[in-house]
Amino acid sequence: MLQSFGKSLSDFPPMPKADASLVPDVESRLIHDEMSYNRPVLAAQHDRMMSTMTLEQRNVYDKIMTRVKEDKSGLFFLYGYGGTGKTFIWRALCAALRSDGGIVLACASSGIAALLIPDGRTAHSRFGIPFTIDECSMCGVTPNTPLASLLIKAKLIIWDEAPMMHKHCFEALTQLGKSMMSTYLLLSRPTCLFQVQNTIVEQVNDYVFNLIPGEEKIYLSYDTPYHKNIDGDAVDDIHTPEFLNTIVASGFPNHRLRLKVGAPVMLLRNMDQSLGLCNGTRLIITKMGKFVLEERVISGSNIVEKMFIPRLSLTPSDNRIPIKFKRRQFLIFVSFLYVAISRVTSRGGLKILIADDDGDDIDVASNVVYREVFRNV
Ligand SMILES: Nc1ncnc2c1ncn2[C@@H]1O[C@H](COP(=O)(O)OP(=O)(O)OP(=O)(O)O)[C@@H](O)[C@H]1O
């Protein structure tokens, strides 16, 4: 498992090193894993997809396939509105190349988008992109490692929802590409932004939560300040746990979680992508224990009936919070609202709540585009 992320036990001292003679040849295993698809099944899937492909999709597909077959490097940027069939093209390209024994590395900026592409991973984990990124950041892929060999052998790299990431991520990948990859290709898609007022979301969530029958449970987090110095012999006691409990941040669980069996929740972190447990995965609570929650996955490609979610410690990544502390809590929030308009298949199945500044319902909305978000793309 460590090897598939370009790591080994020696990266985690004082873990003992494994006996080299007992460790299988990682390089060949990583590459073997990427080439061991059921080729006839993929070929049949590819044929089916080609038979329904639209002319526009076919045009994109042909351009990319021609470049890959010519063994030339290239960079493509695919733009299209939500639901217009971009993922369909990724799937067809994956099926075409993998059924022919080629290696395709499919990734996406978010874990939830990575689930939609066959064997997709997050770009961060695939290329070792650091979470805190600046203009000097480098991908954590070391030359002459099995992961580096895999990248070199890749015929195609797909990167879905690319504009969601900072330009420094692409610069880091470009550096990596220059240093080791001869052929690489980047694909992308636009991001649609919806501005949802948190207070309205909370009101709707509270209203619907109260309609769910059954007993509710309150789970309080355990918040601890970080030690003042690296030796850790003095605790930062300026900030009391009571104060830390009041901190609310986006992408961070609340101190007080109100839960009920049957309540839909959303994961706040990538926990296990192979099981479909990513940031944004939606789950339904089926049992509430003291230390663990039993849940059913209701979104993504893996519809799993029983998952167990433990409490985990998390530090807020928002730079606007100057205090360093850890919160131990279930990394979820109750979520009845889910913005995925392109996934709705009938007009009748779509309900949109629009509220004005006073919170009153209205039936018009302004289309606001924040151009600044594209500045770093
Ligand atoms: N040529 C096609 N033949 C059959 N089904 C298609 C075709 N193109 C797209 N679809 C289907 O339409 C739906 C939406 O397509 P897809 O998910 O590829 O769109 P998208 O552009 O990736 O959407 P989003 O931006 O919201 O992720 C999917 O169910 C997909 O399988």
UniProtKB/TrEMBL annotation:
Keywords, sorted A to Z: ATP-binding, DNA damage, DNA recombination, DNA repair, Helicase, Hydrolase, Nucleotide-binding
EC assignment: 5.6.2.3
Leader sequence residues: none
UniProt GO MF annotations: 5'-3' DNA helicase activity; ATP binding; hydrolase activity
Catalytic reactions on record: ATP + H2O = ADP + phosphate + H(+)
Pfam families, alphabetized: PIF1 (PF05970), Pif1_2B_dom (PF21530)
Keyword Ligase: no
InterPro entries (UniProt xref): DNA_helicase_pif1-like_DEAD, P-loop_NTPase, Pif1-like_2B_dom
Cofactor: Mg(2+)
Domain (DNA helicase Pif1-like DEAD-box helicase): residue spans on this chain: 53-181
Domain of life: Eukaryota
GO BP field: DNA recombination; DNA repair; telomere maintenance
DNA helicase Pif1-like 2B domain location: 242-287
Family: Belongs to the helicase family.
Stated name of the protein: ATP-dependent DNA helicase
Native organism: Medicago truncatula (Barrel medic)
